[in-house]
Every structure is written in C-alpha cells, then in structure tokens.
Design goal:
Mean pLDDT of chain A: 96
Structural class of chain A: alpha/beta
Distance between the termini of chain A: 47 Å
Largest interface: A-B, 73 and 73 residues
CATH class of the largest domain in chain A: Alpha Beta
CATH topology of the largest domain in chain A: Rossmann fold
Number of helices of chain A: 15
Strand content of chain A: 5-15%
Largest sheet of chain A: 6 strands, parallel
Low-confidence stretches of chain A: 356-360
Strand order of the largest sheet of chain A: 3-2-1-4-5-6
Radius of gyration of chain A: 21 Å
Oligomer: homodimer
Number of domains of chain A: 2
Chain lengths: 360, 360
C-alpha cells in the first residue's frame, strides 16, 4: 500500500460522543440556545475532529503551495509566469498579503515549492518540487498519474510534519500563475457545470482573454477526457502540482484528526480532489470565505461547505483561511471560556414563551 | 446649543485626500488590484475617517449598553426581565460571550447601565442610568423627549471618554430583555416595512408569542404615532435607553473622527436613530455581521451598509462587532505592511491581457 492509500485508510468519521458533549455544554452557556450560530456549530465540529469535548486551537499554520502551469502559454492569465517565483520570494520575505494576515491572526506560514517552473533557491521555502511546472494540458495530460500521486503524498508529508510539530489547525493557500484555469477545469469535470459559471477572470483578465480561457479549458477536457470518478485521473490530466499538494495537506490533516481551513478557488479545487479520493475527508474541512471567482460558490455548494466571510476577496495565498482561522479559534474559546447559567446565576428561559424545536 | 446639537455640528464628511492616497498605495501592493476586496475598501474608508493615508487600529473598545423595557410586561420575550442585571453582572465578571470574543480580538469591553430596571451596583459598570427602564410603549411614550436626548448625550460622553483614553475603533453592543421589540418598532417606523419582515423571534419566542409581539408593536405605533422625520420622537416613543445610548456612541465616534462597528439588530436600530439625526454619521459606521433576526438585513439595506460575517448569530452584546473589529484592524495592517511591487521586485500585470475599467 502506498502512502496515499495508507493515509486514506486512516481517515475516520468524526467522534459523535465528543460532539454530543460539546453540544450539551453549548446549551448551558449564558446565551439563548443557538444564538452564536456558526461559532457554536464550529466548536462542535472541532470537538468531533479533535475527538475531545473541549477542542483547542493553539498552533495555526497556513501552508502555501506554489506551482506553475504549462497552460499559461495559452495567454490565460493577466500576469507573466515569472511572477510565481517572485511571489514565492515575497512570501519568504514576509511582504505578501498572506504574511500580513497570518501574522495578524497569530498563524505561521509555510511556503512549499511543489513545481515552480524556474529554480527556487530561497531559504525557508520547503522543496517538494515534483517537476518544473506542468505540461500544457491543451496538448496532453498536465502530469503523469505517478506525478499526481507524488504531489499528493508530498502534501501529506508537509501536513504530517506540521502536525508532529504541534499544529492543531491547518489552512491551505496557493500561488501559481494560470492556476484558476486548472481549478476551473477540475470544477467543470467534477460538477459538469457550464463554463459560463465555472470560469472567471482570475487575477483580472479582460473579456477577450476570458473567451480564450474558456476555449482552452474546453479543449483540454476534450483532448484528455478526464474520468470524474477517478480523482487522480482528473488531477493528472487538468490539475496542478500545488493543487495535488494541497489535496494531500487536506488528506493528511484528516488522517491525523486535524481540521483544515479551505481558502478560495484553487484550494477548493484541491478539496474536490481530496473529496473524490476520500469522501469522509470532507468532515475535516472548514470553508473560510466565498471568493469573487464565480466558480467558487459552485464548488462550495458541491462540497456542501458554508463560508463565513463575504469580503469579495480573490487573492488566494491562504488569505481567506488566515482570516477564518481566527474565527475557528474563537469558536473553541467560546465553548471553553463562557460561563454557564448555573455558574453565572443567570435565569434560564421561560419555557411557556419559547419556540419549540431544535437548536433554539 | 445642547451637547447633542454641538456633537452633530462637529460631524464632517470623510477626508477625500487621505482616501485617494490610500487607494493609490493599495494599487501598488503585491496583489492584483482589488483582489483583497472589502479589506481594501475598509482600509480606504478608515483613511477617510482617521484623516490620514495610513490609518491604524491600536485600541479597540466594545461599548455594551444595558437597559430595560416596560414593554417586557406584554410577554414579548422568552426570558424574564431579571436576566438584564444578571447578564450585566456576567459581563462584569468576564463570563459572557462578548467577554470571550473581545478578549480573543484584543478589544476591551465597557459596560454601561443606561436604564436597567433594578439597582445595579457592580464595580466596573459605568452608571449612566437615565431612568429605571422605559415605560410600556403600548400605553404611551417609552420615555420623554428630554430623556431621549439625555440618553444620547450619555452615549456621546462614554464615546468621548474612550476616545480621550486612546480608543481608535469603537464597537456597539447591547443587553436588554425585550429590546428586539423596541428595535423592530424603530425599524418599522423608519422603513415602513411590513411587520412580517421587521419582527422576529429575538431570543427565541414561539409562534404564539411572535404573534403577540407583532400586535404589541402595531398597537405601540398606533398609540404613539412617532414621526419618522424626527429621530428623537421615534426614540422617545418606541425606543429604549440603551438604544439611545448607542446612537450617542455612534454620533460621538463620528464627531471625533473614529470608526464605529455596528453589531446586530439592536445596534442597527441605534444606527438608524443616529442616521436620522445626522445622515453624515453613516460614513463612520462599519457593519459587522448579518443577524438571524430577519429585520437586520432590512436595516442594513436601509443604511446601505454591507456586512462581512455571515455566521447566523443573534446574541447581540457586541459579539459581531468584536469579531469584525479584528477584520478592520487587518485591513489597516494590509495597507501599511504589505510590500509594493517595486519593493518586492514582482512584475506587474500584462496590460494587453487585462480587464479594463475600475478597480481591477
């Protein structure tokens, strides 16, 4: 059994008993039942993931994976491919959006070279390069099936190393010129969505380039015929190295009982790959924000994940995951730190005036 | 001129020059233009509010105001009135939801007795009691016009004291059994909305009590005939002491060039009162979340404010404002701390592939 299969075999359902105990405690805290909404639900999900009734978030790590895409040659991005290594250097120097937002949230950032086209020799960047960029998916598969497996296994290794080092909440992030093209292709294959809905402007291409991007994706899917029932086939044919790596981060987190925050559109594509390989992995995913990229909402609907932040963001890098990591931490603190009705000497609800039924 | 009129006279439009400089800097940061969405817009708004191109958030204070409502006698809440002072004690002891979330966000909490029905003698609670609870608005005005003015002026004083003490971001919060009834009445008067849309279950009343609540509000508006063009008349006749106080906090923040985060439904009612007294005060408001209480979305639409957090919360106390305070702080850090394209040596966009037009 390879590392990928071993990891998938380790992924269990959430711990129902811890979730029940967390729910019972939430209902004793000094607030109307259910009135903290998603914060309550998140704390209960975290209890199920961490398999303890009082989950904690003590070390948050955002894993930003970078890779290049052969399809960039088709003119599908507003930025040149040299921006991928330049932004990796910017991450390492601490000057990018993800650095600022992770510092603000008290999260650490790991930067991983999964397949930048040029040589990356920057201190602090984890080298997991599978190959220097994918092939152009219009002309054939983006990578081989073996490389797809290797990219996922590299992601699992990164997640495992962080968890071994104490991380109890992971977040995903991405960098890679043209990676909304690969992500749109993945979404289109898995969901069958019309390209009018699954393909957007990415970093900000104009109408003409958007038309080219749709044609390129149509052609890539026609040429490669990815099998939607086989996540590895989809990843290999129309995916990306950073997308495979992030799918591995998600599977590695799930296999080790750690929650993983899904950032935006590219992370969502990785989540779809992870989900297709192991449906139970979805129980460990937490959605952060909904992106401006139109396909992102479709993706979240497919995954049945509800985002918390509506901020018209579309940067990627893990910026949405960083902001949301603070909300997950808050949910655990609410559960642990709020006083109960009994502790605070606060009167409970008059039952005769109350709404009957669940959660209120 | 009384303090209220003096305060309103001090409220100016935002500083356009600082906003332009902030926008110019945002467009030089290492990200596609506009890709941090609301975080970018917030930082620019903060520049206009603080009248400097690099706004800062160094001291966040959530002001939680408590008051009782005579209309509670009509059976419009699921909780007994004694809960108001019990929760004030819980706030002072640090055990309530707002305490946990403010601590998490690095914000301080101030607790103000604007009009709790019973005697509140708790260290740390600021005493601004105008009267021990409002009168039952079904039988006549909730308070006199003089008391309405006094409640707003007390709120202005609280805001001014915090700002003098270094606060550069305020948030509003509320506690008061039956205060969704007063807030729904305020919303109904100002917006003309149907009671089916402006009245909800508050802390969780059942269908029968909800019907009573709608009848009570209908009767209170019929009996008092509040004049929607006169915010003081609306506040006096169907408002609340904590609602007046929070309107004062908003006006006091605006008059002193400080942004104020609007929490949920009760804070939204206070924002409507502040807006009716001084339309320009709206420029200083930042919406935090959208509440489960159905009228809240209506209110935000009336105020043309866009919430950032969709978390199905309905607790009040300033809990949404506390969570959002971290986002406002993040927006200022993005503007100040991110590297520019020139600093980071990152290539800019290929203009020929770009979307033409504003903000992208």
């Amino acid at each position: 059994m390879n590392k990928l299969d071993e990891t998938i075999a380790k992924i269990e359902g959430l711990d129902i008993k811890s979730m029940r105990l967390a729910r019972e405690r939430q209902d004793q805290l000094t607030k109307p039942k259910g009135s903290l909404g998603v914060l309550e639900e998140l704390s209960i999900k975290m209890a199920g993931i961490q398999r303890k009734p009082l989950p904690e978030v003590n070390k948050k790590v955002i894993i930003v994976m970078a890779g290049d895409h052969g399809v960039a040659a088709e003119g599908v991005s507003a930025f040149p491919q040299e921006v991928t290594p330049q932004m990796v250097a910017n991450f390492a120097a601490g000057g990018a959006g993800i650095n600022v937002l992770a510092r603000h949230a008290g999260a650490e950032v790991r930067i991983v070279d999964m397949g930048v086209a040029s040589v990356v020799d920057i201190p602090g960047v984890i080298d997991k390069k599978i190959r220097p960029g994918t092939a152009n998916m219009v002309e054939g598969p983006a990578m081989t099936r073996e490389q797809a497996i290797a990219s996922i296994e590299a992601g699992i290794e990164v997640a495992e190393a962080e968890i071994a080092d104490g991380a109890d909440l992971l977040g995903t992030g991405d960098m890679g010129i043209a990676n909304t093209t690969a992500s749109s292709a993945i979404l289109t294959v898995f969901s069958g969505a019309d390209l009018l809905h699954s393909v957007g402007r990415g970093t900000g291409i104009g109408a003409e380039a958007l038309e080219i991007k749709r044609e390129v994706i149509t052609e890539a899917i026609r040429a490669n015929q990815p099998d939607k029932r086989d996540g590895l086939d989809v990843l290999a044919k129309v995916g990306g190295l950073e997308i495979g790596g992030l799918a591995g981060v998600i599977l590695g987190a799930a296999a080790n009982g750690v929650a993983v925050l899904i950032d935006g559109f590219i992370s969502g594509a990785a989540a779809m790959v992870a989900w297709s390989l192991c449906p139970e992995s979805r129980s460990y995913m937490i959605a952060s924000h909904v992106s401006v990229e139109p396909g992102h909402k479709l993706m979240l609907d497919e995954l049945a994940l509800k985002p918390m932040l509506f901020m018209n963001m579309r940067l990627g890098e893990g910026t949405g995951a960083a902001l949301a990591s603070s909300l997950v931490e808050a949910s655990c603190k609410v559960l642990s730190e709020m006083a109960t009705f009994a502790e605070a000497g606060v009167a409970e609800k008059s039952e005769d005036l109350s709404e009957k039924g669940a959660g209120i």
